[in-house]
UniProtKB/TrEMBL annotation:
<feature type="region of interest" description="Disordered">
    <location>
        <begin position="305"/>
        <end position="324"/>
    </location>
</feature>
<feature type="compositionally biased region" description="Low complexity">
    <location>
        <begin position="10"/>
        <end position="28"/>
    </location>
</feature>
<dbReference type="Pfam" id="PF02567">
    <property type="entry name" value="PhzC-PhzF"/>
</dbReference>
<feature type="region of interest" description="Disordered">
    <location>
        <begin position="138"/>
        <end position="163"/>
    </location>
</feature>
<protein>
    <submittedName>
        <fullName>Phenazine biosynthesis protein PhzF</fullName>
    </submittedName>
</protein>
<comment type="similarity">
    <text>Belongs to the PhzF family.</text>
</comment>
<dbReference type="GO" id="GO:0016853">
    <property type="term" value="F:isomerase activity"/>
</dbReference>
<dbReference type="InterPro" id="IPR003719">
    <property type="entry name" value="Phenazine_PhzF-like"/>
</dbReference>
<feature type="active site">
    <location>
        <position position="77"/>
    </location>
</feature>
<feature type="region of interest" description="Disordered">
    <location>
        <begin position="1"/>
        <end position="28"/>
    </location>
</feature>
<dbReference type="GO" id="GO:0005737">
    <property type="term" value="C:cytoplasm"/>
</dbReference>
<keyword id="KW-0413">Isomerase</keyword>
Amino acid sequence: MTPRTEPTKSATSVASTTPTAPTAPTASAPDVDVLRYSAFTTRPDGGNPAGVVLDAAAVADDDAAMTAIAARVGYSETAFITERDETARRYRLRYFSPLAEVAFCGHATIATAVALAERDGPGELVFDTASGEIRVETTADGDGPPRATLTSVPTRSRPADPGTEIEPTLAALGWSADDLDPALPPHVAFAGNDHLVLAAATRERLADLDYDFDALDAVMRRRGWTTVHLVWRETADGTTGNAAFHARDPFPVGGVVEDPATGAAAAAFGGYLRVLGLVDGPARIHIRQGEDMGRPSDLLLDIAPDDPRARVSGQAVPIPETER
């Protein structure tokens, strides 16, 4: 998850393992208390960093200010609690990348839930987002940081169009049709945002990600996608129950080369697996992401064939000043 700071045609030339601040935002960034957490990890140098503003009342109606704060923080997303009902543990939550608002962000949801659990104690939380109601269960067993499990809005998935969606995306990635796993067809999947799902045929293909930032950004903007969810199935026997996948998520539309952990895409991927009939009972999927960026992340995805929602779980930890 590296904000893009200069023009480039290659993701490789700007990718790094440490978030860096983008160029100065055009709007002023008011002073608010921003917490910094890394989600889907137990280590601050792993996972996906997110900014968390537990009290954003001062900027609740100022989109430009929240965008400027997100740009100043420099992470792929910063979450803002703009309204609250502390008694009901219900909050209005908005998400901003360094460039614009995002309807839903999984890792920032996990980070916000853990921050609230550490402040107020574990239990159920309800977040009202632009995508709909997101319920999150937080738990703490005294062994490691709190864990949060979000339940997505109802998911859906449809086949991607070869001419307008698959071909230009493969061209931007520098991939060919032969690089794809024929058992996992390209789809556009939704769990609050749209994500193109492409399955690589080999781990080597997934690891070798050197894409055309501007070209992929253009395709994604035309199609309204938040990320391209690139996956490789570690188990090769055709089963999906309790399987393991590796994932990578380019995010140029957010001004970010790549996310090291993408909870929203993981939830959408759950819908993809359900629609394709790749689960015939309750299944837990382990998604390993961020390894190729040096920020390993672990996401647990729970899906059932008779429930259109997906559940995504992970831990989160504060990021010390010395590691920001």
